[in-house]
Amino acid sequence: MVTVVCTRWLDAFPVSYVRLLKNAVAANLQQEHRFVCVTDNPEGLDSDIEGIRMPDMGLPLHHQKLGCWPKLSIFAPGVLPPDEPALYLDLDVLVRSSLEPFFEQIRSKPGLHVLREWNPTLWNMLPHQLRPDRGVQGSILGFIPRDHAYIYEQFMADKSIPLRYPLDQDFLTEHITNRTYWPISWTASFKWHCTKYYPLNLLFPKIREPKRAKIVVFHGKPRPVDVVPLGNYRWGAKRKFGFGPVSWVRDYWLRYDPSWTEPSQTEASLPASHAVAAAA
Question: pTM to 2 decimals?
Answer without folding.
Answer: 0.91
